[in-house]
Amino acid sequence: AGSVGLGSVEHSDGEGARSTAGAGTTDESLEHEVARLSAELAAVKREWREEGGDLRARVRELRAELAAERRRADATTAAAGSAADQMESVASEAGAAMEKLARENKELRDQVKALEKQITAAKYLHRQESKRAAQTQARLDKLK
Question: Exposed, middle or buried, 44 (CB in 10 Å: 0-12/13-18/19+)?
Answer without folding.
Answer: buried
